[in-house]
């Protein structure tokens, strides 16, 4: 019946569907958490919990991911919500880069996928904490660029003025209403990102990539490109990483595991919706440099 469709298109649709099917539950979870934050997390509560010292606040942000297990598919809505609620940007982004990696589910998946050895899980955590400290410090002390798009900042303030305290049932309804909005909003970008990622997986010639693995640095860079284009869920990427281990070696696989959950196509699409383009470019550049150096030196 489908014989007239070229094989590559079928292959692409299969990959696309698997990316979407894998990501949707996590995006949904992310949106529900985001909805709960929207309703229950007040700016005052945030200010109470967070230490005044910027560096300590970055550390708190880096550790939060352990308690808020979130896949990177659903992380952008949560971080945006944090920032609208007055969480400092450096804490929010430290959370954004570590949460998809240092959560227990992902660490367990990494442990299992890479031959039941804790080594990769630990290297993964180390790399993500390093990136979080660098990114957090950069945002806290050096970044002069605006981060959230203006209309979102205004929407945050606007919402804050009008939020009254509804009854218990009303609150749950509010969480779900917010989650559904967020889901359809984010879902669009997930689908576009998934399509691009699937087409790159099918149409990028792997032979060409494999010839590049002679030098350590080049193979690390190739794996960064792969992590970006494959756009895997952080719960599943370790299984792909382990299949590439024999070809690329430990350094490159660690780069792949640290970089993928922070920057990939679907994430980029979701970030583009809420953050300024210039800021995203700098963020990506810093993450790339830090991860490449880390992977090279381990």
TrEMBL record:
Q: Supply the InterPro entries for this chain.
A: DUF318, UPF0718
* Superkingdom to which the source organism belongs: Bacteria
Sorted alphabetically, the keyword list is: Cell membrane, Membrane, Transmembrane, Transmembrane helix
**Which chain regions cross the lipid bilayer?**
15-43, 55-80, 92-114, 121-141, 186-204, 216-232, 238-259, 279-297
Compartments, as annotated in UniProt = Cell membrane
Is Cell membrane one of the keywords UniProt gives this record? yes
Question: What PANTHER family is this protein classified in?
Answer: UPF0718 PROTEIN YCGR
What protein does this entry describe? Answer: Permease
């Amino acid at each position: 019946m489908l014989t007239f469709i070229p094989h590559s298109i079928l292959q692409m649709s299969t990959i696309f569907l698997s990316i979407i099917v894998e990501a949707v539950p996590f995006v949904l979870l992310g949106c529900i958490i985001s909805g709960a934050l929207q309703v229950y997390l007040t700016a005052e509560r945030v200010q109470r919990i967070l230490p005044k010292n910027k560096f300590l606040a970055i550390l708190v942000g880096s550790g939060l991911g352990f308690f808020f297990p979130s896949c990177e598919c659903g992380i952008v809505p949560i971080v945006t919500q944090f920032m609208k609620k007055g969480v400092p940007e450096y804490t929010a982004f430290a959370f954004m880069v570590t949460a998809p990696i240092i959560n227990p589910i992902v660490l367990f998946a990494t442990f299992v996928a890479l031959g039941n050895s804790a080594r990769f899980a630990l290297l993964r955590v180390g790399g993500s904490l390093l990136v979080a400290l660098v990114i957090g410090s950069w945002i806290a002390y050096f970044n002069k660029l605006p981060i959230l798009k203006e209309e979102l900042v205004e929407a945050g303030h606007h919402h804050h003025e009008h939020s009254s305290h509804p009854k218990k049932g009303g609150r749950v309804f509010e969480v779900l209403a917010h989650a559904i909005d967020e889901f359809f909003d984010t879902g669009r970008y997930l689908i576009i990102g998934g399509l691009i990622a699937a087409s790159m997986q099918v149409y990028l010639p792997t032979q060409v990539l494999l010839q590049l693995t002679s030098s350590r640095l080049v193979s690390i860079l190739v794996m960064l490109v792969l992590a970006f284009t494959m756009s895997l869920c952080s719960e599943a990427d370790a299984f792909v990483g382990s299949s590439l281990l024999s070809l690329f070696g430990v350094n490159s696989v660690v780069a792949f595991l640290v970089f993928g959950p922070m920057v990939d196509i679907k994430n980029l699409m979701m970030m583009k919706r809420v953050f300024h383009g210039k800021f995203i470019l700098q963020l990506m550049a810093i993450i790339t440099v830090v991860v490449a150096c880390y992977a090279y030196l381990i």
